[in-house]
Structure formats: C-alpha cells, structure tokens
Automatic annotation (TrEMBL):
The keyword Repressor belongs to this UniProt entry's keyword annotation: no
Keyword annotations of the record: DNA-binding, Transcription, Transcription regulation
Domain HTH lacI-type: 6-60
Protein name per its UniProtKB record: LacI family transcriptional regulator
Cited Pfam families: LacI, Peripla_BP_3
Organism field: Prevotella lacticifex
Length: 342
C-alpha cells in the first residue's frame, strides 16, 4: 500500500496549478493543453494517485462512506456489531461498506486496500485470528486515515479501541462454576497472540488462584477459532485420566463446537461437564440444555466504535480505549446442583 493517499489537491500543489486544472487533465479534457496533461498524468502515476469513483460519478452529492472489516460475518456477534455501526453511521448520513476477512490475514490486507481505493473517510476493524503482522495498519496511520479497532485489537499507541471487559467476565464465569460445584475447570480459547484471548484466560486463571484451586495447564486449550479445534479440544480434555468437570468456551463457535462434542460423547451437561460460553444469550436458549453465557453488548460496541471513528474524522487526535461491560446470563448448562432436575 502507498504511504500517503494522494489527493487532487496534492497533485495541484506539486504542479502549481488549480485543482480544477488537474481534474480536467486527468479526464483528458480539451480545456487543458497536451503538455499539462502529460505532466499531470505522469505525476499522478508517480504518486500512485487513485481516483475516487464515488466522487467522480456523484460530484455534487458524493456519499460519505466508512469501511468495516470483520473476521467472520456469519456469527451473531459480528452481525450485531455491524448493526450497531450501521445504525450510528446512518444517523450521521454515512454509508457503511463491510468486508469479511474470513479470519485470513491476506484477505484482511486486501479489504483495507480496497477501502483506500474507495476513498472511505475512516475504517473500523477487528483482527483476523492469524494476523500477527500489523504493517498494513501502520501504513493506514501514516496515510492519515482514521481507524478504530474493536474486540481484537493492536497498536494501542496509534489507534483508539473498543473492547469488552473479558478478564472481568471470565473471572465471573469461573466464580459461578466454582460456586455451583465445579472444581476442574477447563478453558478453550483462540490463538494466544490475540489480546482478546489473553484477557479472558487471565480472568479465568485469576479466579482459580483466588479459590486456591490448583492450575493444571493441561486444562487450557488455545488454538484455532473453529468447530474442529473445539471438538478436538473436548476429545483431548475428556480423554484425560482426570478430566475437567466444567469448560469455559472462548466464543460462539468454540462454545457450540464443544457443546456438540460433549453430547456426542454421551456425556450429560451439566452433570458430567458444566459449560459456559462467550456467546449470544438468545442463540444459547435454542439448545437443550440452555447454555449459560457471557454476552457481549455487541450492538453497543458497534455504536461506540463508530462514535470514536467520527471523532477522529472530525479531527480529534486523542487515542481512546473504551470498555463495554459483558453480562453473565445464567441458564441450565452450568449449575451442577441442578443437574438432577434437567
């Protein structure tokens, strides 16, 4: 990606002519001489100028656009975040374009590049799970394009971010499991390099320490955010000589992958294995037993992210970190004392 998003104004200033002259030269207008056309077009090529297709087609009423890139749009969480972003953006007259990275770093980079080509006014992003190189986001900063991260974040010294209190929420989930009879509590998470995973794992481990429950590292399974990994993790955990009696699952994919595999193994929930998932409470009510969840206020996260982006678009240079609290919704899957009644 280029280091600076070249504008018509940049070209005009370099050549010492008006923006209108540059625009006409790029359109090959007869109103501009051949020598000037060549100078303008050559400089545009050297500076990697990218025309704005929206401004070209709708010069008087160009739409105001922001871009959003998410890892997995089919999950309820990201759909709900996007819903919050769109509601907030619409109230300010903006249009939202969303791109799905499919948890892939290369697709994430391409989405960002596409947004630059579209001349979006700002970007809201959540990292793909395999993104460990943040250079494409550093280039966005160098280009002066406002960007806000949510959920999975990086470069906190450069960009504002909106996160959940995952450490507090995981601590509360573990506390609930301990209070209702669980003692060997496992954690199934995503890649360890994601700050979102680290926060939730920290809260879980902290609760065990506070209750003097020995920490068994074999009960912590972190890897891909996928159904396959969740099922494999359950197989490994339940194959132990001293298996867990409870599981905290990182997100909706991990939660329902683990839930399905536990039942496929002929185990009862919560009698044999209690489970709490970081997922949506409505979806968790559609299975039997109903799953106790730690729920994001996903739509609110979207609205807060959009608010911070608009502040940056208006020139606010402050870097914000906003924390949106999560909520523990207790249902049937977590309380061993109620197992006989299920």
């Amino acid at each position: 990606m280029q280091q600076h998003r070249t504008s018509l104004k940049d070209l005009a200033e370099r050549l010492g002519v008006s923006i209108a002259t540059v625009s006409r030269a790029l359109r090959n207008s007869h109103e501009v001489g051949e020598e000037m056309k060549q100078r303008v077009q050559q400089l545009a090529k050297e500076l990697n100028y990218r025309p704005n297709p929206f401004a070209q087609s709708l010069r008087k009423e160009a739409p105001r656009i922001i871009g959003v890139v998410v890892p997995n749009l089919v999950t309820h969480y990201y759909a709900a975040v996007l819903d919050g972003i769109e509601d907030f953006a619409r109230s300010f007259g903006y249009t939202v374009i969303c791109s799905n990275s499919h948890e892939d770093h290369t697709r994430e980079e391409q989405a960002i590049d596409n947004f630059i080509n579209l001349h979006v006014e700002g970007i809201i992003a959540c990292l793909a799970q395999d993104t460990t190189d943040y250079s494409h986001f550093k280039e966005i900063h160098d280009m002066g394009i406002p960007l806000v991260f949510f959920a999975r974040t990086c470069l906190p010294e450069l960009f504002s971010q909106v996160v959940a209190d995952g450490d507090v929420a995981a601590h509360s989930a573990a506390e609930h499991l301990i209070a209702t009879g669980s003692r060997r509590i496992a954690f199934i998470g995503g890649p360890n390099h994601l700050d979102m995973v680290r926060r939730r794992k920290h809260g879980y481990l902290q609760a065990l320490r506070e209750h003097n429950i020995p920490i068994d590292r074999n009960l912590v399974k972190c890897g891909d955010i996928s159904y396959d990994f969740a099922e494999k993790a359950v197989d490994e955990l339940m194959g132990m000589s001293n298996p867990p009696d409870a599981i905290i699952a990182f997100n909706d994919i991990v939660t329902f992958g683990a839930f399905k595999r536990i039942q496929e193994r002929g185990l009862s929930i919560p009698g044999d294995v209690a489970i709490i998932g970081f997922t949506d409470s409505d979806t968790a009510s559609f299975v039997t037993p109903k799953v106790t969840v730690v729920a994001d206020q996903a739509s609110k996260q979207g609205k807060v992210s959009c608010d911070l982006l608009f502040r940056a678009i208006r020139g606010d240079k402050k870097i914000y970190k906003e924390v949106v609290p999560m909520q523990l919704h207790i249902q049937d899957s977590s309380d061993k004392s109620r197992a006989k009644g299920i």
